Amino acid sequence: MRNIIFTIATSASLLVLVNQPMQAQIEQDQWMIGAVSNISVRSTSRDNSSDQKSLNLTIKFGYFFQKNLAAGLDIGVTHLEVGGSSSTDFNIGPFARYYFKDRFFAGMGYSLVFFNQEADATSLTDTGGSFSMEIGSPIWVLIESLSIEPTLRYNIGAGDLLKGTNSLSLNIGFVLYF
């Protein structure tokens, strides 16, 4: 019984500690740097011809130009495998985020995308763009300047090969505010 009470008390204390509003972290002249990723695996058939594997990693650098408003640069890479073909894209572009009530944020950005697709013996390259919108909430961990940030992100592709390649993803990131 003591273990159960201790576990409940510890969990409640941690929940209160990590869900504190972030006041000093989003003031003017502060910086943010982080890494955001998502991984997905989807199996759609028994013969593995259309199985999908995807990995995305994005590095985010930002500066708070005023309280609650940050802008910066996203640099990322995505690798996708579908059956016997694969594609890799590199992207770079600006982003902006606004923090509401010191607990939630909404952001948008545009990335220039360098796309390379390989299928069997052929290779196809293209450049295009991707407009993104995201919402999320930092969850503060142990120290007040480090957060885990789950975000819901919607991407809209542009360019000959990327047009119509819209995606909705749940991302997890670690961000350091200083």
How large is the count of helical segments?
A: 1
Distance between the termini: 42 Å
Strand order of the largest sheet: 1-2-3-4-5-6-8-9
- Net shape: elongated
Secondary structure category: mainly beta
What CATH architecture label applies?
Beta Barrel
- Uncertain regions: pLDDT < 50 for 5+ in a row? 11-19
What's the CATH topology label? Answer: Porin
CATH class: Mainly Beta
Radius of gyration: 19 Å
Rounded mean pLDDT score = 80
Largest sheet: 8 strands, antiparallel, barrel
What percent of residues adopt helix (DSSP H or I)? Answer: under 10%
Succession of helices and strands? HEEEEEEEEE
Name the beta content range.
over 45%
Question: Can you characterise this structure?
Answer:
By secondary structure, the protein is mostly beta strands. It has a single domain (2-177), classed as Beta Barrel (Porin), CATH 2.40.160.20. Helices cover 10% and strands 66% of the residues. It has 1 helix and 9 strands, in the order H-E-E-E-E-E-E-E-E-E. A hairpin with a 2-residue loop joins strand 5 (104-119) and strand 6 (122-136).
Please give a quick description of this structure.
With 178 residues, the protein is mainly β. Helix content is 10%, strand content 66%.
Features:
178 residues, mainly beta, Porin, 8-stranded antiparallel beta barrel, 9 strands, 10% helix
Give the SSE map.
Blueprint: H1 2-18, E1 31-42, E2 52-66, E3 69-82, E4 85-100, E5 104-119, E6 122-136, E7 139-141, E8 143-158, E9 167-177
Antiparallel strand pairs: 1-2, 1-9, 2-3, 3-4, 4-5, 5-6, 6-8, 7-8, 8-9
